[in-house]
Amino acid sequence: MQRRSNEIEEAEEEEDGRRGLESVRERELEGRSSGTVSMNGDDNVYVGVGKGDSSMDALRWAIDNLITSSSTLLFLIHVFPETRFIPYPLGRLTREKASQEQVESFMSQEREKRRTLLLKFLHACSASKVKVETILVESDSVAKAIQDLITILNIKKLVLGMDKSNARKATVMKGNSVPELIMRSSAAEMCVVKVICQGREISMEEAMMLNSPSKSPLAQRPRKDQPVDPFACICFISKPKTNS
């Protein structure tokens, strides 16, 4: 009887895994959900994933700390580079000069690589009984793509991984890692961004406060020889947007 129960549990886990595999699909993101999935729910959790080990650390931290109920939906965000060149035996061709067959063959291989990459993250979610969806975005700038998603989907909870070497630079906010670029952007003001290194959360806000002249307590403290105006106010002037 116990053996039969174990077989049923294993079959259910396999079925959950198959459902997860079906969610690895690539579709154009238009800023609205497809089907019955609500992408911009306040309870949703978004995790950026890629090839580095820090991505799995970020996912595990999110599962352990931010999945508060069975209704919480977790989104895996994977940004992959735009395809501009198609390899062939003698080198590579621009996408425009390659034949349709060459393009389709290469794109199929790349899709399979992304699918294989995402499987381990989906299996981790399935093992923890977490509802998961995937968002795949084609962009040459990971940070910019995620910043746009924060605005489009009204993301409130975002978890990003960071390796140890970048974490050292992040303490002084002098690096150009994806978490740092996002934290320095205006998009970070719209949601809570958690940065995870080796399974532990690191504080990016303190580093930003210490290294930003406009936010540093020392910069805001009046000098001894400077009179304090009790009627003074702080004005925030937004810079005009420029077309990039």
Automatic annotation (TrEMBL):
CDD domains: USP_STK_Ubox_N
Annotated transmembrane regions: none
Basic and acidic residues bias: start-end ranges: 16-31
Residue ranges annotated for the UspA domain, each copy included: 44-193
InterPro entries: Rossmann-like_a/b/a_fold, UspA
Residues covered by region (Disordered): 1-38
Protein name (record): U-box domain-containing protein 37-like
